[in-house]
């Protein structure tokens, strides 16, 4: 007898839950940072798993979960084309300014 | 009879026994993420047990601390509800046991948050946040398993049929709960049984599960009458401190 499976899943997903990329915002005012990935059957489970795996030590104030399959990455082959042109533009770094102490998290 | 001591033992022992059982999942969860989730919940339960048993020791006034109460009482001295000592079984069994308990714990902690005893109210308010998350986790799994595949549905339906009779012990009312509620520092669980029943019914509807009708209820845990399972659990939990009573971390 064939085993019943949910539809619309790839062969890999039938055997393993889909992979989710996890982003945590640690404090108000900061942006979400990628902290790692985990497996979960659905988005709700991904949020719960992320809470248990990545915020056990008070790291988090907010969690985003994104299906890993939804991420489009730049190709390593394009590294020179994409990033080398910035090499000689040091004036884009804010190192020529004195920041007041009151400005945090820059 | 010291009603306050008895009542606090019930709170502490429910959390302690359930926490110990969830700890047994360490390294055996169905997936890494769920392994961590179950043991996190177990650790929350142990934390609650420590707070309640410490308070119980004070109420008794015989110099027993949380460890003395946890490790040096025998089976008949334990006051946990029978549901908490049901074996882990398969993952579905553990989830059903947890859901039935979590739905109770959410009501209990809400009620105790208004306790006239400041320490009890503080522990309850802290525990309420934890139990709300536990319920969210176990309830989501009830729906996922109940409304999942044919196999997951039939397994978790069987778990529900098996475990529901033991949930009645959570709502046992007697002179202890009467005094607790009457004096305002505790709660009579019968008061929130309707809310619990509604929570179970709503879960069943969403999870495509059938709630068995008029189950014969098993009681006795609150009076120290336990099932065989508890003795095995206590043997494993207590062997180290009983073998080396002065052991320190």
Any overview of this molecule?
The complex is a heterodimer of chains A (106) and B (249). Chain A is of the alpha+beta class and 106 residues long. Chain A has one domain (11-96): Roll (Ubiquitin-like (UB roll)), CATH 3.10.20.520. Chain A is flat. A three-stranded antiparallel sheet of chain A has the order 2-1-3, with helices on one face. Chain A is 21% helix and 19% strand. Chain A starts with 10 loop residues before the first helix and ends in a 23-residue tail after the last helix. By secondary structure, chain B is mainly alpha-helical. Chain B contains ten helices and no strands. In chain B, helix 1 (3-23) crosses helix 8 (175-183), helix 5 packs across helix 7 and helix 5 (91-112) packs antiparallel against helix 9. Chain A binds chain B through residues 3-5, 17, 38-42, 44-45, 48-49, 51-53, 56, and chain B through 31-34, 36-37, 40, 133, 136-137, 140, 144, 149-151.
Radius of gyration of chain A, CA atoms, in whole angstroms: 20 Å
Tell me about the largest β-sheet of chain B. Answer: none
CATH C-level name of chain B = Mainly Alpha
* Mean model confidence by pLDDT of chain B: 96
Largest interface: chains, residues each? A-B, 17 and 15 residues
- Estimate what percentage of residues of chain B fall within beta strands: under 5%
């Amino acid at each position: 007898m064939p085993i019943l499976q949910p539809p619309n899943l790839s062969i890999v997903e039938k055997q393993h839950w889909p992979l989710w990329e996890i982003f945590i915002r640690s404090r108000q005012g900061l942006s979400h940072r990628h902290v790692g990935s985990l497996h979960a059957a659905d988005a709700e489970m991904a949020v719960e798993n992320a809470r248990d795996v990545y915020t056990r030590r008070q790291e988090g104030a907010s969690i985003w979960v994104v299906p890993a399959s939804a991420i489009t990455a730049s190709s390593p082959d394009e590294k020179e084309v994409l990033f080398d042109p910035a090499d000689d533009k040091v004036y884009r770094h804010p190192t020529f300014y004195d920041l007041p102490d009151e400005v945090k998290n820059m | 009879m010291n009603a306050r001591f008895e009542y606090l033992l019930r709170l502490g022992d429910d959390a302690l026994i359930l926490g110990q059982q969830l700890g047994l999942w360490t390294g055996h969860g169905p997936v890494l993420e769920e392994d961590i989730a179950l043991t996190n919940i177990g650790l929350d339960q142990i934390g609650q047990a420590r707070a309640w048993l410490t308070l119980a020791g004070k109420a008794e006034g015989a110099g027993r601390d949380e460890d003395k109460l946890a490790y040096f009482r025998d089976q008949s001295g334990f006051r946990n509800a029978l549901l908490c000592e049901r074996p882990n079984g398969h993952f579905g069994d553990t989830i059903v046991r947890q859901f039935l308990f979590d739905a109770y714990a959410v009501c209990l902690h809400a009620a105790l948050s208004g306790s006239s005893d400041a320490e009890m109210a503080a522990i309850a308010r802290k525990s309420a946040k934890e139990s709300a998350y536990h319920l969210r986790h176990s309830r989501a799994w009830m729906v996922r398993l109940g409304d999942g595949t044919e196999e997951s549905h039939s397994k978790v339906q069987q778990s529900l049929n098996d475990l529901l009779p033991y949930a009645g012990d959570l709502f046992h009312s007697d002179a202890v709960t009467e005094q607790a509620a009457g004096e305002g520092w505790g709660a009579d669980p019968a008061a929130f049984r309707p809310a619990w029943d509604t929570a179970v019914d709503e879960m069943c509807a969403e999870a495509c599960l059938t709630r068995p009708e008029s189950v014969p209820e098993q009681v006795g845990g609150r009076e120290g009458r336990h099932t065989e399972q508890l003795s095995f659990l206590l043997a494993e939990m207590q062997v180290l401190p009983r073998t080396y009573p002065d052991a320190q971390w």
